[in-house]
């Protein structure tokens, strides 16, 4: 259908073109680029270029019971499922913003009851210059009564994205979508590390409990010996009471350890996403656990493997586009509207063609001229948010480097600490036997036996805690390098 272009319509197009050439008068604000400089190497790190972050967590952890716990948690943990919903919502945001710069067509129907004002006829006659008094009165008497109007048609509206405002908004939504994916990965790395640390803590508590129960058994034997020595006048009541108090103190510690075991089991079950139940583990192998040599790679690998760094990078890219979107609001916006349908006073003749066919086409332009406080504030906030995102990106990188450096040093120092603790425990175990023999032959005081046993118990517990700390440092280093997020979950494919 050809629509005639009269002089008024042509003039309107020329006016819109002239106004579009006016500057948007957007204030100039300074943005900020993030400084991503990292050291060339980690302190105390090996010279290997590979990194453990590239190893899947199922290969990193060789305990099948721990692997089962983590695998169950990834499919049942509520936080992981909530993070997946964040991804779905971010994907829906892409779809919504992509639809904003596409033409929109809607079907609309309307029924109206109206009457033309009598002054309309007077104005019409006066404009023609042929009005006579009797004719005006006749027109007034013959003015139509209220009539219904029926309309139905298809209407098109389209905002022309001249300044990429709408497309930049869609691209920003894409970056937010990618950030939500990395956020879920980072959550998984934290979950995997927390489950592994809690699992090793549970094994350590089992060993502490076994150590305390064995110590109580030995102390009861010593207590029985002291009672026999007292009966033969070779000891006194004070020694008996002191050993009885020591046995009772260690028995109370047994119940405290059992409570810690219950709470740690419940914590693990909560992370897995299931009700409280017994957690399967083989704690007898705890002392045989080996701390893996975790390849740290290069600091630059963190930019590629750490999900939180990639998340901050995507968010920074999104804020840059948000600034462009806010700036574009100072410029003219263009729109096109068109309609095609039928209009009639009587529905019987509603679809008469072409008599009742109606159409329209309009172009519009708008731009802010005065009182631009709202869009200025929005633009300034978007720019400030971009600067914040740049600092957050730098901060995330620095924090990642700090975490890796701390865990590397922790592993090194804990290894030396464990070797000394093991030698201490061996020496104290031998000293217990010597002290008991000396006491039986009246060559040592009962306090020496008591203190030696107490020191041995504490040293064995410290040895267990050191081994737990070693395993924890290994897990934390693996997480700090960016490992542990690999899973087989499917994420929605964005519509862009």
Label this structure with key terms.
elongated; single chain; alpha+beta; 496 residues; four-stranded antiparallel sheet; 12 helices; disordered N terminus; 9% strand
Mean pLDDT: 85
Q: What order do the strands of the largest sheet run in, or round the barrel if closed?
A: 1-2-3-4
Instruction: Tell me roughly what share of residues is in helical segments.
Output: 55-70%
Q: What is the molecular shape?
A: elongated
Q: Strand-residue fraction?
A: 5-15%
**What oligomerization state is this entry in?**
single chain
**What sequence of helices (H) and strands (E) makes up the elements?**
HHHHEHHEHHHHEEHH
- In total, the number of strands is 4
DSSP helical segment count? 12
Structural class by secondary-structure content = alpha+beta
Residue ranges: pLDDT <50 for 5 or more in a row? 1-5
Major beta-sheet overview = 4 strands, antiparallel
- Specify Rg, calculated over alpha carbons: 40 Å
Report how far apart the termini are: 34 Å
Give an overview in words.
The structure is a single chain. The protein is α+β, with helices and mostly antiparallel strands. The chain is 61% helix and 9% strand. The protein has helices spanning 7-20, 57-60, 64-76, 78-100, 119-128, 133-141, 165-231, 237-272, 302-305, 307-328, 373-440, 446-480, and strands at 104-114, 147-160, 333-344, 357-366. A four-stranded antiparallel beta sheet has the order 1-2-3-4. α4 runs antiparallel to α7 and α10 (307-328) packs antiparallel against α11. Residues 1-5 have low confidence and may be disordered.
């Amino acid at each position: 259908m050809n629509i005639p272009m009269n002089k008024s319509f042509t003039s309107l197009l020329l006016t819109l073109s002239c106004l579009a050439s006016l500057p948007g008068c957007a204030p100039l604000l300074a943005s900020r680029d993030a400084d991503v400089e990292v050291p060339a190497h980690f302190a105390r790190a090996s010279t290997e270029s590979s990194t453990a972050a590239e190893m899947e967590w199922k290969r990193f952890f060789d305990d099948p019971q721990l692997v089962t716990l983590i695998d169950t948690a990834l499919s049942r943990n509520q936080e992981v499922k909530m993070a997946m919903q964040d991804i779905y919502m971010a994907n829906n945001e892409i779809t919504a913003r992509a639809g904003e710069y596409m033409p929109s067509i809607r079907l609309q129907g309307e029924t109206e009851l109206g009457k033309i004002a009598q002054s309309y006829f007077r104005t019409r006659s006066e404009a023609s210059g042929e009005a006579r008094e009797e004719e005006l009165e006749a027109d007034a008497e013959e003015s139509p009564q209220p009539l219904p109007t029926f309309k139905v048609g298809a209407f098109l509206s389209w905002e022309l994205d001249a300044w990429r405002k709408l497309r930049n908004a869609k691209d920003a939504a894409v970056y937010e979508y990618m950030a939500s994916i990395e956020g879920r990965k980072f959550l998984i790395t934290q979950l995997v590390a927390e489950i592994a640390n809690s699992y090793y803590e549970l094994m350590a508590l089992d060993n502490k409990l076994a150590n305390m129960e064995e110590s109580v058994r030995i102390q009861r034997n010593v207590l029985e010996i002291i009672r026999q020595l007292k009966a033969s006048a070779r000891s006194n009541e004070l020694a008996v009471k002191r050993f009885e108090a020591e046995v009772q103190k260690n028995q109370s510690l047994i119940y405290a350890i059992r409570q810690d075991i219950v709470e740690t089991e419940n914590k693990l079950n909560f992370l897995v996403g299931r009700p409280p139940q017994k957690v399967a583990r083989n704690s007898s192998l705890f002392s045989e656990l080996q701390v893996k040599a975790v390849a740290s790679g290069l600091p630059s690998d963190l930019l590629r493997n750490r999900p939180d760094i990639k998340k901050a990078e995507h968010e920074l890219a999104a804020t840059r586009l948000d600034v462009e979107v806010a700036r574009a609001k100072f410029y003219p916006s263009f729109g096109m509207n068109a309609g095609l349908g039928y209009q009639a006073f009587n529905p019987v003749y509603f679809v008469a063609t072409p008599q009742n066919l109606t159409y329209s086409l309009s172009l519009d332009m708008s731009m802010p001229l005065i009182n631009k406080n709202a869009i200025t504030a929005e633009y300034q906030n978007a720019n400030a948010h971009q600067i914040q995102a740049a600092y957050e990106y730098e901060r995330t990188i620095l924090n990642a480097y700090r975490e890796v450096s701390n865990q590397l040093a922790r592993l090194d120092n804990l290894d030396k600490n464990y070797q000394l603790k093991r030698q201490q425990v061996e020496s104290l175990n031998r000293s217990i036997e010597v002290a008991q023999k000396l006491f039986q032959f009246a060559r040592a005081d009962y306090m020496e036996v008591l203190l030696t046993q107490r020191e041995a118990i504490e040293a064995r517990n410290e040895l267990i805690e050191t081994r737990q700390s070693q395993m924890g440092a290994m897990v934390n280093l693996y997480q700090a390098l960016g490992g542990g997020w690999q899973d087989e979950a499917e994420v929605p494919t964005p519509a862009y």
